[in-house]
């Protein structure tokens, strides 16, 4: 039996008077997960309109804490992009029949959809819109969606024939007064239901797109590595083509997508991965891995929940004097501040004084609702363990850039990065390997690079990177071409499994 939580933006939400399990986002952030808590499902009613808002983090943290959440982060991001509704428009037959030739109907009509259900429709409209609402909820499970419908006049006759639809996601506070009670009824019904929220084969051989960005300063793979990926793919029966985003006119012409461009959530790499996965392609890295790895708040919460060894880290939501003093007392100086999203040491800052801490927190919180503060731990090198589908496939030790505390120094052209040492995985200390595999288990079964610090007899996982660096003469220095074969062999295995589905 699941326990249901309803999370809202603020403590003074009127919903707290109607439901006993309504909590604020701040309470969910601080008090959960709880020891020995029952299985939990969560209805996120925070405003998710803005990227990196409280609503966004609410769903992200719920997924890290193994709570079943509505809407998911993937749904939130999908609804931020342009939603393709063309396949569902024929279902709204009632609306077209009742309105298409009505010359007085010049205004768009809006209908509220709560948990996939509509209300207040006339008999002509009912069936088509009910089916539409149900299928829309299956595709984009979200508590509240506003459906806007209208008609574009035919250019030749002026008669309104072409139906036009769009959707908007909304929070309860955006509902008009006339809808508040109706929404509460639907919310009550939904909390008492069982949640059930929800490709085709092509040729017997396959085509793959390897996505790159020729303009990247630090791409995940250099040109020599990319050419070796292409050759390894060919030996596995895969025709791999290196393409940039602007060259992909139709992702459906491929069977697989291998992303070798630095990923981000509010970015075309994530959108393309979503589209590819939706259309049945085998994708590395998959959208879920991108979501989880690209946000350090998720990783921190997942590490805490699943007892992955990591440095003392605190999620910060304000820059008050009390917060600054608490961080000073708990971590001392220097300490490290991290933006939730960043790669190749970007968005990571070392602060040495209270004044610097307060100033940098204000700066970062202007961009993101949450920031991570982490204790500072200097080592001469960081481990990077490459993991594919739960198995370690390569290991490197990256040394710090000269006269710098990170492996990358973005302010130095001459000494941008430190040296490295590549070795077989069987020479890696068992504590390091176990920590890497445990961290990846919290994320998924994709291709990851796990960054780990080792100090004395302790190891600390810093983060799990989707789309890890694989450069010729660096990560492949021990395995050589076998590293590329192992990765393409995994693509081949997944393509074969897809064909059996």
Main beta sheet: 5 strands, antiparallel
How would you state the average pLDDT, rounded? 85
**Structural class based on helices, strands and sheet pairing:** alpha/beta
Range of helix content: 25-40%
- Oligomeric category: single chain
Instruction: Specify the CATH class of the largest domain.
Output: Alpha Beta
Low-confidence stretches: 96-104, 199-204
The number of distinct structural domains comes to 5
CATH architecture level-2 label of the largest domain? 2-Layer Sandwich
Approximate strand percentage? 15-25%
Walk me through the topology:
Elements (H helix, E strand, L loop, with lengths): L2 E6 L13 E3 H7 L8 E5 L9 H11 L3 E3 L2 H8 L12 H7 L9 E6 L8 H17 L4 E10 L6 E10 L7 H15 L14 E6 L11 H13 L2 E6 L12 E4 L8 H11 L3 E3 L2 H7 L2 H10 L7 E4 L4 H11 L3 E4 L9 E4 L2 H12 L5 E5 L5 E8 L2 E9 L20 E4 L6 H12 L5 E9 L2 E9 L14 H20 L1
Parallel strand pairs: 1-2, 1-3, 3-4, 8-9, 8-10, 10-11
Antiparallel strand pairs: 5-6, 6-7, 12-15, 13-14, 13-15, 16-17, 16-19, 17-18, 19-20
């Amino acid at each position: 039996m699941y326990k249901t939580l309803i999370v809202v933006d603020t403590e003074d939400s009127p919903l707290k008077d109607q439901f006993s399990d309504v909590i604020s986002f701040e309470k969910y952030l601080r008090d959960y997960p709880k020891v020995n808590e029952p299985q939990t499902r969560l209805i996120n009613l925070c405003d998710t309109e803005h990227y990196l808002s409280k609503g966004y983090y609410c769903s992200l943290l719920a997924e890290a804490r193994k709570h079943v959440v509505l809407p998911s982060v993937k749904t939130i991001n999908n609804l931020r992009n342009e939603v393709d509704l063309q396949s569902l428009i024929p279902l709204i037959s009632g609306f077209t029949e009742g309105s298409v030739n009505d010359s007085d109907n010049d205004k768009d009509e809006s209908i509220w959809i709560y948990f996939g259900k509509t209300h207040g429709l006339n008999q002509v409209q009912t069936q088509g819109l009910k089916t539409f609402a149900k299928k829309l909820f299956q595709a984009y499970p979200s508590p509240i969606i506003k459906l806007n419908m209208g008609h574009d006049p035919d250019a030749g006759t002026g008669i309104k024939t072409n139906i036009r639809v769009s959707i908007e996601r909304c929070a309860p506070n955006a509902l008009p007064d006339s809808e508040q009670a109706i929404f509460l009824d639907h919310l009550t019904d939904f909390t008492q239901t069982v949640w059930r929220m929800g490709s085709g084969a092509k040729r017997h051989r396959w085509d793959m797109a390897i996505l790159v960005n020729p303009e990247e300063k630090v791409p995940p793979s250099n040109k020599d590595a990319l050419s070796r990926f292409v050759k390894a793919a060919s030996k596995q029966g895969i025709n791999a083509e290196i393409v940039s985003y602007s060259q992909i006119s139709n992702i459906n012409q491929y069977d697989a997508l291998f992303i070798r461009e630095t990923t981000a959530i509010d970015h075309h790499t994530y959108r393309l991965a979503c589209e590819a996965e939706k259309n049945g392609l085998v994708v590395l890295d998959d959208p879920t891995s991108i979501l989880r790895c690209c946000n350090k708040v998720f990783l921190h919460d997942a590490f805490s929940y699943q007892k992955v060894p990591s440095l003392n880290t605190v999620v910060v939501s304000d820059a008050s004097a009390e917060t600054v003093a608490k961080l000073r007392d708990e971590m001392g100086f220097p300490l490290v501040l991290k933006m939730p999203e960043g790669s190749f040491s970007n968005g990571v800052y070392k602060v040495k004084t209270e004044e610097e801490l307060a100033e940098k927190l204000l700066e970062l919180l202007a961009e993101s609702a949450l920031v991570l503060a982490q204790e500072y731990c200097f080592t001469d090198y960081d481990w990077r363990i490459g993991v594919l589908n739960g198995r370690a496939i390569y290991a490197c030790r990256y040394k710090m850039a000269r006269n710098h505390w990170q492996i990358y120094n973005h302010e130095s052209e001459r000494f941008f990065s430190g040296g490295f040492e590549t070795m077989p995985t069987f020479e890696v200390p068992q504590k390091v390997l176990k920590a890497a595999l445990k961290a990846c288990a919290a994320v998924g079964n994709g291709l990851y690079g796990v960054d780990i610090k080792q100090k004395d007899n302790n190891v600390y996982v810093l983060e799990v990177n989707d789309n890890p660096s694989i450069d010729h003469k660096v990560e492949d220095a021990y395995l050589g071409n076998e590293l590329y074969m192992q990765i393409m062999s995994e693509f081949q295995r997944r393509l074969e499994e897809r064909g059996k589905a």
